[in-house]
Amino acid sequence: MIDTVSVAPVTSFRDTLVRHRLLIPTGARGVYGFGAEFDRVLQRLDALITRAGENDGAEVLRFPSLLPRTDLEASGYLKSFPQLVGLIHAFDGDDRAHAALLQAVAHGTDWSGALGTTDVVLTPAACYSVYPSLGGETLPPSGRLFDVLGVCFRQEPSDDPARMRMFRQREYVWVGDAEQCRAHRDLWIRRAQEMLHALQLPAEAVVANDPFFGRGGRMLAASQREQALKFELVVPITSVEHPTACASCNYHQDTFGRAFEIRDARGSLAHSACVGFGLERIVLALFRHHGFTVDGWPMPVRATLGV
Ligand code: ZN
After folding, report:
1. CA of 170 to the centre of ligand 1 (A)
2. Are residues 62 and 174 in the same domain?
3. Is 252 exposed, middle or buried (0-12, 13-18, 19+ CB in 10 A)?
4. What is the end-to-end Cα distance of the chain in Å, rounded?
5. Contact yes or no for 122/150 (Cβ under 8 A)
6. 132-183 residue pLDDT tens
7. Cα(140) to centroid(ligand 1), Å
8. Rounded to whole angstroms, how far apart are CA atoms 189 and 228?
């Protein structure tokens, strides 16, 4: 498929989305509200992903956007992605501390010192709630498959609307042995590609790496690429040279099995694989490639989505 859409600077794309009431800007970079049309398309997209996986017998799980801090620690996230973490703080002071807080607000000075840390962090990926829920478990021989949807957070403020700090992620997560996980990952690379092509988006599957932090991270990223553990389906949204990952298909090997003591039926550490769809990103790609009003979209795209 040929991309015929010329890609404008990120700010003009964002301004047009705002003008059409698709995105509602807030005072914080990368944090948006969503208008009715945007949300309608997103809900239909979510239903399309449900249809793509509905015969697989996944167990549906829905978690809130908070994760126990201890689970984030166990997952290794702080080692790999400290730059993206969001920790919840809350006020736990007395009357005096409260008065000091109000004084600071009134003077426009920093009041965050009045808050203390809590035992919860913002969930960075929808599947991160699944593995702790299986902690200590021995899986059945067939493994287990989960369907998750979560609002996720990553601290990467940007003017690019395709890089939000809070966004919805729909995932199918397999936990089982290595062979099952690789098969799950490969099946969904194909399915996700078919789905995005049915939506007439020029999606391309590429080997990718996670944004590992620091010098050690460069080695982790290289090794992840070398072993082809992560594939992304990329679509140009705000840049042709740097297309946006709209879905990713990941094989984690036994990272989470080891972290949460999950074992397969043979007693080995469980492996896991997930496919994640960035719902807002795919919706943005649809508006970018087919226009800012749904009524003008190609009929086959509207039929596929049911909009
Ligand atoms: Zn995942």
Report:
1. 9
2. yes
3. buried
4. 23
5. no
6. 999 999 999 999 999 999 999 999 999 999 999 999 999 999 999 999 999 9
7. 21
8. 12
Same domain, 204 and 285: yes
Among the candidates 122, 145, 172, a domain finishes at 122
250 alpha carbon – ligand 1 mean position (Å): 7
The tokens of 72 are what? 């984030």
Centre of ligand 1 to C-alpha 181, Å, is 12
Write down which residue in 73, 99, 122 finishes a domain. Answer: 122
In total, how many domains does the chain have?
2
Span from the CA of 61 to the centroid of ligand 1 (angstroms): 13
The Cα–Cα gap between 191 and 251 comes to 16
Q: Which tens digit of pLDDT belongs to each residue from 87-114?
A: 999 999 999 999 999 999 999 999 999 9
Rounded-to-integer distance, Cα 172 and Cα 188, Å = 9
Structural domain harbouring 211: 4-86+124-305
- Ligand 1 centre and the CA of 266: distance in Å? 24
- What's the pLDDT tens digit per position in 228-251? 999 999 999 999 999 999 999 999
